UniProtKB/TrEMBL annotation:
This is Alpha 1,3-galactosyltransferase 2. Belongs to the glycosyltransferase 6 family. It is found in: Membrane. GO terms for cellular component: Golgi apparatus; membrane; vesicle. An alpha-L-fucosyl-(1->2)-beta-D-galactosyl derivative binds at residues 252, 264, 320, 343. PANTHER family: ALPHA-1,3-GALACTOSYLTRANSFERASE 2, GLYCOSYLTRANSFERASE-RELATED. Its cofactor is Mn(2+).
Length: 370
């Protein structure tokens, strides 16, 4: 995950305690109220930090995540999948009532895909009959290529859209170091050389421009759908055609059970990513949809990023902040559960029956350029 451009003293305390992501949650609490109480005195802030710091000392990351896992989710209000705003006719087969422990649809009638809701064979048959094909984009720049790309691609061959034609679009600054991957029939790799930016934040944000460009020049002539991934992940279970839709977002594993007031949206009024409230908090490590929808998203995010740059602003969570803003204004037609991008360090959750894509171990100190 990405770090904040600037860290508060509280966040530094949290990092010293090694409570992963607790700093981000605490930061969300402060950001939510900071703009309302900016006139509070510094002394009051110091007094406020003390009990919070004690709470951090008391709760380890594992116990905190256990408590978060007990927080209830909203429930789907639809009686039948026939009431959904359908991405595909096969969505009428979704069993929205099969998972009473989680939310299976959104307020705008889009499905939220969880294990147990769908028939994998039925989805695969439908998409094969309709001629669906998928472009997978991934960036492996700098030391990320050596550390993650081979594992990512090899695991994808076993789990990602295995019954459909897939073209991998690998963006890298070092094409000659591409690993040798044994591909199944109807699967191919295209390597695209990109510039290596000095800051990892710029690499992350500038991918929006690169993805938009390759959709226009190549993908739209070859594939019906596009999925965009961070490379520091590994597929561990079926990531199949049930995930295909016109506009697809994934619930962030660390936020899907938290109250909305704790979501870390960018609340800087000067940023194009600014948003006070939203529906969910989406993870930018995975997003997708039809090539038209992904092109529209990446173009809009890139434009917002460039406007921020011209104004001397950088969004709180970089491209992820801009993606969340876009998905709030343009609701996704399909939402994937955290099964589709899970972090095992969160610990056991009863609602995560299967993990389909896992965060790989992070080694930011040695991998990031700045």
């Amino acid at each position: 995950m990405k770090r904040r451009p600037a860290e508060t003293s509280l966040q530094i305390q949290v990092k010293l305690l090694d409570c992963k992501y607790l700093g981000r949650v605490m930061g969300a609490m402060r950001l939510t109220s900071a703009h309302r109480y900016v006139q509070k005195s510094k002394s009051f802030k110091c007094v406020l930090c003390f009990p919070i710091a004690l709470c951090v000392l008391y709760f380890t990351s594992s116990s905190l995540q256990l408590l978060i896992g007990l927080l209830p989710m909203d429930k789907c209000s639809l009686e039948s999948a026939k009431m959904l705003s359908l991405d595909n006719s096969v969505d009428t087969s979704l069993d929205l009532g099969s998972r009473h422990d989680v939310q299976t649809c959104t307020s705008w009638k889009a499905p939220i895909i969880w294990d147990g809701m769908f028939d994998p064979g039925l989805y695969d048959q439908t998409h094969k009959r309709e001629g669906s094909s998928v472009a997978l984009t991934v960036f492996a720049v700098g030391r990320y290529l050596d550390a993650y790309l081979s594992t990512f691609l090899n695991s994808s061959e076993h789990h990602f859209m295995v019954d459909l034609p897939v073209t991998y679009y690998v963006f890298t600054d070092n094409p000659e170091k591409m690993p040798d991957i044994k591909l199944a029939p109807q699967r191919s790799i295209k390597v695209i050389k990109v510039e290596r930016h000095a800051r990892w934040q710029d690499i992350s944000m500038m991918r929006m421009k690169a993805i938009s460009g390759v959709i226009e020049s190549d993908i739209r002539h070859r594939c019906t759908h596009v999925f965009c991934f961070d490379v520091d992940q590994v597929f561990t279970g079926r990531f199949g055609s049930e995930a295909l839709g016109d506009s697809v977002a994934v619930l962030h594993a660390y936020y899907y059970r938290l109250p909305r007031m704790w979501y870390t949206y960018d609340r800087n009024l000067k940023s194009k990513a600014y948003m006070e409230n939203g529906d969910f908090y989406y993870h930018a490590a995975v997003f997708g949809g039809s090539w038209r929808s992904v092109k529209a998203l990446t173009e809009a995010c890139y434009q917002s990023i460039m406007e921020d740059k011209e104004n001397g602003v950088e969004a709180l969570w970089h491209d992820e902040s801009h993606l969340n803003k876009y998905m709030w204004l343009h609701k996704p037609s399909r939402v994937l559960s955290p099964e589709y991008c899970w972090d095992t360090s969160i610990g056991y959750r009863t609602d995560i029956r299967v993990s389909r894509l896992l965060w790989a171990p992070k080694h930011y100190d040695s991998l990031r350029t700045s």
